[in-house]
Amino acid sequence: MIQNQQHKAFTPGLNSLLQSAQDTNPGDYSWNSLKEIIDGFAPFLMKHLVDEIDTLLDLTTYDSAELMQVWLVTENVAKGVAHPNQFRTIGELGS
Question: How high does pLDDT run on average in the chain?
C-alpha cells in the first residue's frame, strides 16, 4: 500500500522532530537544527498529504455516524480505555 510506504518515509523525521522538542532546552534552541530536521522529511510528508486528499474524499461514500463510532472506539483503544479485541465487527461498534 502506497500510504504505508509514504508513512515509513516521513515517520523517522517526525520522530526526530519530537525527540528534538523533548530534549532541547529553550536556551539551546537552534532554528538551523530544527530546519534541517523538517527539511529532511517535509517533501515526503507533503507528497503524502496531497495523495491523501482522494482517500479523504472517498470517505463520503461511508455512513458518517458509523465512521464516528469507529473513530471513537479507535480513540479509546489508543487511550487504553478500550481493548482492540473488544469488538469483533464494525457493526458492534455502535452497540
Answer: 85
